[in-house]
Design a protein that fits this description.
mainly beta; Immunoglobulin-like; 4 helices; 44 strands; five-stranded mixed beta sheet; Maltoporin, Chain A; 3 domains; Ferric Hydroxamate Uptake Protein, Chain A, domain 1; single chain; 786 residues
Amino acid sequence: MSWAAFAQSNIKGAVKNSSGEGLVGANVILVGTGRGATSDFQGNFQIRNIPSGSYTLRVTYLGYEAFTREVLIPTNEELEVILEPSSLLTEEFIVYGTRATDKTPTTFSKVDRRDIAKLNLGQDLPILLNFTPSVVSFSDAGAGVGYTGLRIRGSDQTRINVTVNGIPLNDAESHGVFWVNMPDFASSVDNIQIQRGVGSSTNGAATFGASLNIQTDTRQDEAYAEVDNSFGSFNTRRHMVKVGTGLINNRWAFDGRLSRIASVGYIDRASSDLRSYFLSGGYYGEKHVVKVNVFAGAEVTYQAWEGVPENLLATNRTFNPYTYDNQVDDYKQEHYQLIYTGTLGQNWKANAALHYTYGRGFFEQFRPNDRLNRYGLAPVIIGETSISRMDIIRRRWLDNDFYGGVFSLNYLSDDGKLDAIIGGGANRYDGDHFGEIIWMQFAGNTNIRDRYYDNVAVKDDVNLYAKATYEVSNGLFLYGDLQGRWIDYRFDGINNDLRDVTGQVNFAFFNPKFGFTYQTTEGKQWYASYAVANREPVRRDFTDSPIIERAPRHENLQNIEAGYKRQATNFSYNANIYYMKYRDQLVLTGQLNDVGAYIRDNVDDSYRLGIELDGSYRLSEKFSLGGNIAFSRNKIAEFLEYLDDYSVADFRQEVIVHINTDIAFSPNVVGAAIIDYRPVKNFEVSLLKKYVGSQFLDNTQNENRKLNAFWTSDLRFNYAMRPRFVKNMEFTVLINNIFNKLYEPNGYTFSYFIPAEGPAGRELVTENFFYPQAGTNFLAGVKFLF
């Protein structure tokens, strides 16, 4: 490699591994000066405007030994830094057992800490992942802070498996993930692997659309401190402090983060007050790593769950029907993880973790003119007046404990052809659901802490998997993955509709997966796979349907994936097709149970069929382009809609049969594009585009119950500098929705008949509710790294 002539006050060079490959993102500093650089895509670096003198140059890169040497300025020496792998064991194996590799025949993408940091100004993780393939994200409050969610391939959060360091995060009962309970968690994430479709076997609830495999911060070899502050529209503000010791005695490292996020929200009164911390400490030996993570979040979020009625979208998009000053969700959650990973001889690696999560909290509601019999209370008698309805304030509580262990054991043959893993986990969830009346308009026969309902649920979940990749010939890999999962779920007590939900259900699932991958030395790869997943119903499916009389059936998914990948110096792209065939998928139909609650019911036959394209291209030193687009067809063969009919004296439900309709919340087109422009060193301007096709609010494919398609455009500015008093100083400005588009990515609907004049004697009423997202708004932040 040849270099242009050096100016006397500059240092140029390249950072490479022992194979001669450039290492991107290596830290290069002149010790004690505050001057430094980061290696680019080819591993090149340059430090400018250095006064004459003698300096110590230090180069660090995760997983490699630190490099130091003395340099004399001015110099004409061309530096080539070769880094050797670290003798310390890295933490990558913590998530290895539950992740896909480049030889696994499934569809996945990876988001690293640099991608996350560019957008991380206080919004929740689903918003930060909005530009990854087939993702649609949304926010109840309309600005990305508070309650947020995402769908991947049309599958909602309850069908997306999430693990943190291989430990399940999904709520064991609802299968959901409540990101609001983990504010600013993105600041403690090293990388995320997103597998679409069934993917490889993992721990926790079954993957029924995608999985998010999250690895938290890994070891930093040097001591550091980071201060990050951001401010923006809707009085949004984020303050974060992060510190780390670096390696102590070449064996120990400790890290910590403290965060506070607040916002008043785009929707009226949809405020959020969020606090969190993350603590980590570990021992890093040559063959063993023992690490402890403790992280927690506390949130007080004003409820914006009900959405905006369709008739108000044009005149009052920020409408919130709740006006009671403490109509909030108040919840705290603590996570404890003890993790071990190590090498056991020449061919074996092991990983094991113990975990415990403690959650507790409530949501409080003002209920005007509510019926006392809903709470098991007799009418209040005042004089000769019997009062059966009055204003009430209630709290609904959830106290839960989730604990267990996960493990994986990896064998790699001497010739590298066989890579096999045995793993699994055993977890227990213990949840206490209860409700209290904390205020009544007129004193009744109840005390402030009396529980008007109280039930306990215990769920045991055990899984074992064995997966292996074998190279049968040069570049051809066969893959097999077998998982067994056993669930015991028990209820005891009275539900919030005052119905006894005592019962027990058991499931035993077998989830096989197999396929092949073929790779060439030219960076080309073909893959294909077939996978099966089975999933138990969620809590509400059991509590809304009497377990003994009418238990819902489990869901089954068969998934075929096939794709082609191409990796080159300046570009990469992926193309894949998928077919996801469901049996007994559980969907809302409008049907009522025996006490009048709406239930989900199994539909026999439904599917998703699609093609996904994504890639990136480096046009020049200044321009790069990345993007993705997905086209899909998402259908239910036969859907039975149940409509309430209030037009007759004796209430009834009418059944309407729909054939070959779209699955709700499944747009046929989802796309994103990011254009990056770097006009000068350390300054980047990015245009971020997102398109989501129209979506139906239910499974009837009714044009009157639909979310319209939308385009959004965001503009981001990043500038980094290295003043003498800090290692790095970075400014970020994010302008969201620069063209002020009015759009709604989420909503719900219900319909019913009412009496009306005319031959039919009734009229169909449809009520749609939407979650509008903010118009043009901004976030700006400054980050100091010491």
